[in-house]
Specification:
With 249 residues, this protein is α/β, with parallel strands linked by helices. The protein has 9 helices and 10 strands. It has 2 domains: 157 residues, Rossmann fold (3-Layer(aba) Sandwich); 67 residues, no CATH class. The protein is globular, with a radius of gyration of 18 Å.
C-alpha cells in the first residue's frame, strides 16, 4: 500500500471575508513529485504556508509526515525542506560555508555533519564550487546550492516554490533530473511552477482556481477534468487564467 505523507481534509483558510483556500482535500504519497498549479490568487502560496506550519488553518486539518500542522507547527519545520524562487542564502559566504551553516542550523555536528555535507556535495556535483562565493554563482548553480541547504537534514518532504524561475533551460532540465532522483530515494516533493513543461514532469498535479481544487490527477488527466475545450495541461491553465481575469474585471 502506498504511504500517504501529506494529507489535507477540508483545509480552509480565511482572511476576513476572503476565502483564500476552500475545503481542500488532498493525499500526496511517499516518493511522489506533486505539482501545485494555478493562476495568481488561486491559493497555492496560502496552501504551502499552511503545510509548512507558517499559517494556521481556519478550518480542517493537514497532516505532514505524521504531524498535525495545527497542533505542532514547530515540529513540521524540522521535517520539511523549503526552497523558494528567491535566492535566500548568504552571498558573501562560500558554497561550503553556506552548507556548513545550514547543517548547523538543522542540528548536525561533528562527523555526521561532515559526512552529510560530503553526500550532498557528491549528489549535486558541487565539489568544484566549494570555495566560490555564493553571490558569484550562475542561476543554475545558485539553484543547486539552495537545494543542497534545504535537503541537508534529510527531510521526508521538500517544498519547491517556483524553483527554476529565471534559470536557463539546460539548468532547468538538470534540476528536474535531480528532483526525480530524490523522489526515487523516497523524498516527497511538492512543487509550484508556471512552466507547463515542468508541470508535465510531475507524477500528479492539483489545479487550483480562486481557492478551489478544480482538477487532480496525472497531467494528461487534468485537461479533461477542466473541460472548456482544453486538450493539454497548458490549455487548462490558460482557460482558468482567462476565466479568473474575466470574473475579476
Amino acid at each position: 500500500m502506498t504511504e500517504v505523507v501529506v494529507e489535507t481534509k477540508h483545509l480552509t483558510r480565511r482572511f476576513g471575508a476572503v476565502v483564500a483556500v476552500r475545503d481542500l482535500n488532498l493525499q500526496i504519497f511517499k516518493g511522489e513529485v506533486f505539482g501545485l498549479l494555478g493562476p495568481n490568487g488561486s491559493g497555492k502560496t496560502t496552501t504551502i504556508r499552511m503545510l509548512c506550519g507558517l499559517l494556521a488553518p481556519s478550518e480542517g486539518t493537514a497532516i505532514v509526515a505524521g504531524v498535525d500542522v495545527r497542533e505542532a507547527p514547530d515540529r513540521i519545520k524540522e521535517l520539511i525542506g523549503y526552497m523558494s524562487q528567491r535566492f535566500g542564502l548568504y552571498e558573501d559566504l562560500t558554497v561550503a560555508e553556506n552548507m556548513d551553516f545550514y547543517a548547523g542550523i538543522y542540528g548536525l555536528e561533528g562527523p555526521s555533519k561532515r559526512g552529510r555535507i560530503a553526500e550532498v556535495v557528491s549528489f549535486l556535483g558541487l565539489d568544484r564550487r566549494l570555495g566560490q562565493l555564493a553571490g558569484t554563482l550562475s542561476g543554475g548553480w545558485k539553484q543547486r546550492l539552495a537545494l543542497a541547504c534545504s535537503m541537508m537534514h534529510r527531510p521526508p518532504v521538500l517544498f519547491l516554490d517556483e524553483p527554476t524561475a529565471g534559470v536557463d533551460p539546460a539548468a532547468r532540465r538538470g534540476f528536474w533530473q535531480t528532483i526525480h532522483s530524490l523522489a526515487a530515494q523516497g523524498t516527497t516533493i511538492i512543487v509550484t511552477t508556471h512552466y507547463m513543461d515542468e508541470a508535465e514532469r510531475c507524477i500528479r498535479v492539483a489545479l487550483l482556481s480562486q481557492g478551489h481544487l478544480i482538477a487532480l490527477g496525472h497531467p494528461d488527466e487534468v485537461a479533461a477534468q477542466v473541460g472548456q475545450g482544453a486538450k493539454t495541461l497548458e490549455d487548462a491553465f490558460v482557460a482558468l487564467q482567462e476565466r479568473d481575469e474575466q470574473e475579476q474585471a
